[in-house]
């Protein structure tokens, strides 16, 4: 039965609220008190102190739909059906409360009864030694035992601390979506078996010496991709055709005059724009501002990548600020901040985009020239200094130059780039010591006083300028 993305989110949260979970709103993308993390990339991330026992949770059962950014997936966007840089992770968490025998049947019931997914299309992966999970899957659910696969990497851990085996749920989307290789199975990188949900059973505490001590209070941490579930429920070929993303594709298609579903390459660009537009809108909503370091740099990099894909579709003018209207509409009644702070968000994005458009043209022609020269000289690696000049003068993030070079079968000398970058930092340090005024690139024209709102982003911006 068709369900909108927003209905699906609601259904999930209600299902777990009915099972004793405290329902909390999504946390900001900016982690609180966690310098180890650039941005929230999983539903469990804001709960780390509860898992480690550092802090007491407000309730032993919690459910959320968490905004997530994973830049590690950036190259996959538009190339796989299932990856975005920005997505929502639906999750239910147990802090020393319920464990495997509750969570497995719940997940199964939610998928097969609430969402009415066909049980015979579902597959499950478990950690090879996790007989307890195997027993519960076979005895407490109707999963086909032949659809349970054992995978060595189904173990979740980061350094020391709470860790444990996990169990993933996949849906078989049919042979025609697969890679056709004889060993194609859940876990294969192709689009046939779609991973929709990961159930993590944190039952050990890994000590400094590498020992796995069973935890007295075992935890549950699960994560299901909202867009992936929506693609299944809405019977769409990829996440990008769901109502959570498609309006932005339509927008980009309208602005560029490029039709969707006509050509593989332009489809990738339309998908990249749809994903990146959502990412940047939500990042700015959460108080992130473009800068040359940290999360500000992630934002800048994603925005510039979107602009470049816009150019590939022939869009020559700034278009990302207006995409915020479309994004805000998608999340109406869900992320009020997008609507309430829309003018501010659009302004931040517009300033950054306009500036980038100006330098992009110049930078591209410089890079084109360099590529010609490399080609003529029979070389394949671009000098790091030139890469740095593109970064410093023309605002090309390292990854952008590298990506353009790769598209032309060239590469960038990373060491040379890093050296030039370090030299620049040293000059800046010197200048600071000599008490010279260091110019703040890219943000100088953003007039704080003229911003017509009093949101968190405004104060974050001051921090941001200060840091620069
Ligand atoms: P995949 O193997 O497909 O990259 P994953 O194993 O990295 O996914 P998890 O870290 O287990 O994903 O995250 C839990 C869930 O979040 C996944 O099962 C999936 O539904 C969703 N998810 C993860 N990464 C993305 C992404 N980049 N875009 C959309 N949804 C995602
Ligand atoms: Mg992944
Ligand atoms: Mg996976
Ligand atoms: Mg996983």
UniProtKB/TrEMBL annotation:
It is found in: Cytoplasm. Its cofactor is Zn(2+). It catalyses: tRNA(Ala) + L-alanine + ATP = L-alanyl-tRNA(Ala) + AMP + diphosphate. Its main location: cytoplasm. Its EC number is 6.1.1.7. It is an enzyme of class 6 (ligase). GO terms for cellular component: cytosol. Keywords: Aminoacyl-tRNA synthetase, ATP-binding, Coiled coil, Cytoplasm, Ligase, Metal-binding, Nucleotide-binding, Protein biosynthesis, RNA-binding, tRNA-binding, Zinc. Residues 3-468 form the Alanyl-transfer RNA synthetases family profile domain. GO terms for molecular function: alanine-tRNA ligase activity; aminoacyl-tRNA deacylase activity; ATP binding; catalytic activity, acting on a protein; transferase activity; tRNA binding; zinc ion binding. One of its GO terms (biological process) is alanyl-tRNA aminoacylation. Binds 1 zinc ion per subunit. Consists of three domains; the N-terminal catalytic domain, the editing domain and the C-terminal C-Ala domain. The editing domain removes incorrectly charged amino acids, while the C-Ala domain, along with tRNA(Ala), serves as a bridge to cooperatively bring together the editing and aminoacylation centers thus stimulating deacylation of misacylated tRNAs. Belongs to the class-II aminoacyl-tRNA synthetase family. Catalyzes the attachment of alanine to tRNA(Ala) in a two-step reaction: alanine is first activated by ATP to form Ala-AMP and then transferred to the acceptor end of tRNA(Ala). Also edits incorrectly charged Ser-tRNA(Ala) and Gly-tRNA(Ala) via its editing domain. This is Alanine--tRNA ligase. It comes from Pectinatus cerevisiiphilus. The chain holds residues 2 to 469 of 873 of the full protein.
């Amino acid at each position: 039965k068709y369900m909108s993305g927003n209905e699906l989110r609601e259904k999930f949260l209600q299902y777990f609220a009915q099972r004793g979970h405290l329902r909390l709103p999504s946390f900001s993308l900016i982690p609180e008190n966690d310098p180890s993390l650039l941005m929230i990339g999983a539903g469990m991330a804001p709960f780390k102190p509860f898992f480690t026992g550092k802090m007491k949770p407000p309730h032993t059962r919690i459910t959320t739909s968490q905004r997530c950014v994973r830049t590690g997936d950036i190259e996959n966007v538009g190339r796989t059906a299932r990856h975005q840089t920005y997505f929502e992770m639906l999750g239910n968490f147990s802090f020393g409360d319920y464990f495997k025998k509750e969570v497995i049947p719940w997940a199964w019931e939610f998928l097969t009864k609430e969402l009415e997914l066909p049980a015979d299309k579902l597959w499950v992966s478990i950690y090879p030694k996790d007989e307890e999970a195997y027993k519960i899957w076979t005895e407490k659910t109707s999963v086909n035992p032949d659809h349970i696969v054992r995978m060595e990497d189904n173990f979740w851990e980061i350094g020391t601390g709470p860790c444990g085996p996990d169990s993933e749920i996949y849906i078989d989307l049919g042979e025609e979506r697969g890679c056709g290789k004889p060993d194609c199975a859940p876990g294969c990188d192709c689009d046939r078996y779609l991973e929709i949900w990961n159930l993590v059973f944190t039952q050990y505490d890994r000590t400094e010496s590498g020992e796995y001590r069973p935890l007295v209070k075992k935890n549950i941490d699960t994560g299901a991709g909202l867009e992936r579930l929506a693609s299944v429920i809405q019977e769409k070929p990829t996440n990008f055709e769901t109502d959570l993303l498609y309006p932005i594709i339509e927008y980009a298609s309208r602005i560029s005059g490029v039709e969707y579903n006509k050509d593989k390459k332009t489809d990738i660009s339309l998908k990249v724009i749809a994903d990146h537009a959502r990412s940047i809108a939500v990042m700015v909503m959460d108080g992130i501002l473009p800068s040359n370091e940290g999360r500000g740099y992630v934002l800048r990099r994603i925005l510039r990548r979107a602009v470049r894909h816009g150019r590939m579709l022939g869009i020559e003018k700034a278009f990302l600020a207006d995409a915020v209207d479309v994004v805000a509409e998608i999340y109406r009644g869900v992320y009020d901040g997008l609507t309430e702070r829309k003018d501010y968000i659009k302004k931040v994005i517009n300033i950054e985009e306009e500036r980038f458009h100006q330098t992009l043209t110049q930078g591209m022609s410089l890079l084109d020239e360099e590529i010609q020269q490399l080609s003529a000289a029979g070389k394949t690696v671009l000098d790091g200094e030139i890469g740095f000049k593109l970064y410093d003068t023309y605002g090309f993030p390292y990854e952008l130059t590298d990506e353009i070079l790769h598209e032309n079968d060239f590469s960038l000398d990373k060491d040379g780039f890093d050296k030039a970058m370090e030299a620049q930092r040293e000059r800046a340090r010197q200048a600071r010591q000599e008490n010279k005024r260091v110019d703040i690139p890219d943000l100088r024209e953003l007039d704080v006083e003229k911003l017509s709102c009093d949101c968190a982003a405004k104060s974050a911006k001051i921090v941001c300028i200060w840091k620069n």
